[in-house]
Amino acid sequence: MTTRMTILAPCGMLGYGIPQRSLAEGMKRQPDVLGVDAGSTDPGPYYLGAGKPFTNPRAYKRDLTMVLDAAKAHHIPVLLGSAGGAGGTPHLDYTVEMFRDICREQDYHFRVATIGAEISPETLKAKLHDGHLLAFETGTPLTEADIDRSVRVVGQMGYEPFMRALEMGAEVILAGRAYDPAPLGALAMLRGYDPALVIHLGKILECGGAAAYPRHGSDALLGCLDEGYFLVEPPNPDKVCTVASVAAHTLYEKADPYNLHLPGGTLDLHQAVFEQYDERTVKVSGSRFIRAPQYTIKLEGVRRAGFRTITIAGSRDARLITHVDDYIANIRERVAEVYAPDDLGYQLLFHIYGKNGVMGRLEPQQQITSHELCFVIEVIAATADLSASVLALARSVALHATYPGRRAIAGNLAFPFSPSDIPVGDVFEFNVYHLCVVDDPCELFPITTFEV
Amino acid sequence: MKIADIAQFVTSKNAGPFLLTVDIVFRDATSYQQFKAQRPLTKAGVAELYGIPPEHVLDIIEFDPAYAIKITMQRPWGSGAIGETDVYGAQQHMPIAAFDIPWETTP
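Output (structure tokens, whole complex):
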């Protein structure tokens, strides 16, 4: 394999805003493929549970339109992974619908493949029964009860479903939850490039311009695969890739930068060499891929934990601040007198900014040094109605509860908003984060083709 | 001297929903090598800074290509679970950033 192959990542996250100039500059380099990562677990469990996108629909459509415009003008394929953020069926449907709208508006025609990533409870139970669900970073095995309680489970597909869809002739691939580098590297894998280089390049490209300095905003990144090495370069002329920027990005959001696990194996970077190729370009070589004896898919699933209502208020009373722990304890007691927490099964939580609002129980500093505190009072209960009722009581009790040395008897809190109580929505928690052994890397990920 | 005054970056982030990772990235080989030689951070020491059991500090890795030290811990709970204060884990770096270590600066 001696011909060079160029991959353009237009952004680190579809919907975070692709800079026009970076995309135009990137396209001048005649990339062979556009690879788009549209998702992450980073924004938390809500989006997977609620079936909603976490990027703004207007921004998502703008970015997707720009990618399709570029693909159409240059006749190159687009591979998109983790559609709609969490990559479940509603997220994929939302992306496909938006894609169809764009094609209709622009009169674009493509051969399309969609790849589902949501896994049914029946399939999961069959896998559990066969001993094919393995404990992962939570350290606990998955049970049938966990599967029953989860509202949605997705699997992170590897390269193979994308490769199969390309072989089926797809020009645009819209896929559910995927290993982030997979849409970037699937065409290169199909063309026979060294898997280690393809994977490592994809790891760097998946966050787009994040691997270039100065590191701000969403931006594009170009990768060139060649014999025994690859190059990375930002198309944005105001940015540069340095050994430090690229090597540091290898650390980002990873537990261990030397051994990066992925579906089907591990990327081993012990021998990786990062070199400055020219002023703006970094050359990488020496990465190795170690195929795993069994192919595993990472599962992500969430359960519903209740409904959240919050209120936000502040105090700048020195006596309240001094006695804040007594004050909170008093509120809890007074609320419990009216609504017994054990009977009703709600949770009342206080986020106290100025004390330990950011770090909670990890906060090492005990002394409060601020002259004012912000309270976010939160109630999670089974229903929206119960959550709102308990929060309403907690808010009024908090306004009038007493504490040692109290002088300001008219009210303890400054509320910035009217209405003060805010229904936030359903609360979800990750309850599936396990590995699933598969015989065929494509078995959990159904491919559907159509033309627009 | 505080680690934040020696390093170029000290930053925290989730590594998946159940792990938290703190990266310390140095400006140059000299400061990185000096830090590496001193090894001022141990699993037990990091556990003490965060008030967590030592076995929850999973790894302290020296990553030469980036002049970086990576500390990976178990999150106290899954990202976004009830009681969460930092869904992205992006503001949990200060106990390490503010940690004072003996540091000789060569003129």
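The two ends of chain A are 34 Å apart (CA to CA).
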